[in-house]
UniProtKB/TrEMBL annotation:
Superkingdom per UniProt: Bacteria
Domain (PBP) ranges: 25-263
Species of the source: Epilithonimonas zeae
PANTHER family, A to Z: PERIPLASMIC PHOSPHATE BINDING COMPONENT OF PHOSPHATE ABC TRANSPORTER, PHOSPHATE-BINDING PROTEIN PSTS
Pfam families: PBP_like_2
Keywords for the protein's UniProt record, in alphabetical order: Signal
Name the UniProt record assigns to this protein: Phosphate transport system substrate-binding protein
Length: 290
């Protein structure tokens, strides 16, 4: 009887000890595998950041899944992805869903300034487009504006900017930012709407090709014309500047939070700058001469 009693006590002690051990599936900032979802508009910068992070941390694997912004947010809430990239403000209902399902402090990891561009073929006579003209085009049956799809970051951001429901807007669709840019020459009366990151990489072969084929329209607001430039992104004077940020459902300091921290600090910000985007956190270099 005593043997049975001591056997039960020993079994219970082992069970308690095992329950206190760190679960094997929990990753660390420098070891493990996670999935990050991003809209195709930000594919270039996210791939550059993940490639650099994995090079510095060889025992990590970050799977980048390209998915429309709205759908990526749903996957984050359902824990199908560890981290997602967002470019617009969440609605009250979306924040309530985040608070309810994720139950973590609201801490967006801001890492870059991107922009939505209005582009035409290089030989187009158009040089600029006004805020009023954009607003009118969004309600026109001519559907002159070409977006990269519904639920996309570009469409959502423009709709939010004009305080309109995306479902109420009128527009044409060509799936994918690069496809919009490449096929625009076949629709000389149309205006493409793409992300800056699609063409911002200074020495990227595809980005350079598209820049040579496209003309980026200045945006006129309050009788002043704004071009897309690093200065206008830095001070957010270009009317369609947007801040890219990460959201995570990771409740500990694992691979997801490690990657976010890297992206928002100096090494990650250098990658952002090399992508041609404006780093959100600017690190100044001070050189002392003696």
């Amino acid at each position: 009887m005593k043997k049975i009693f001591f056997l039960l006590v020993a079994t219970f002690a082992i069970a308690v000890s095992c329950s206190k051990e760190k679960p094997k599936e929990i990753d660390t900032p420098n070891k493990g595998e996670i999935t990050i979802e991003t809209d195709e508009s930000f594919k270039s910068v996210i791939e550059a950041l993940t490639e650099r992070y994995m090079a510095l941390n060889p025992e990590t694997k970050i799977n980048v899944i390209i998915k429309k912004e709205d759908l990526g947010l749903l996957d984050l809430l359902d824990r199908k992805a560890r981290v997602v990239v967002m470019s617009r403000e969440l609605s009250v209902k979306e924040k309530e869903a985040y608070d309810k399902k994720i139950d973590l402090p609201w801490l967006p990891g801001k890492f870059a300034a991107d922009a939505v561009l209005f582009v035409v073929p290089k030989d187009s006579p158009l040089e600029s487009i006004s805020m009023d003209e954009i607003s009118n085009e969004l309600s026109s049956d001519k559907k002159r504006l070409i977006f990269d799809g519904t639920n996309s970051s570009n469409l959502n951001f423009i709709a939010q900017k004009f305080q309109k429901n995306p479902a109420d807007l009128k527009f044409s669709i060509i799936n994918g930012n690069e496809n919009v840019a490449e096929q625009l020459k076949n629709y000389p009366d149309k205006i493409g709407v793409i992300s800056y990151n699609t063409i911002s990489r200074p020495f990227g072969e595809e980005a350079t090709k598209l820049r040579n084929e496209l003309k980026v329209l200045n945006v006129v607001k309050d009788n002043k014309s704004y071009e897309v430039s690093s200065e206008n992104l830095k001070d957010m004077t270009y009317p369609f500047t947007r801040v890219l940020y990460f959201l995570s459902n990771e409740a500990y300091y694992g691979l997801g939070n490690g990657f976010i921290r890297f992206s928002c600090q100096q090494l990650g910000q250098i990658v952002v700058e090399k992508e041609g985007l404006q780093p959100y956190n600017i690190f100044r270099r001070e050189v002392q001469m003696r």
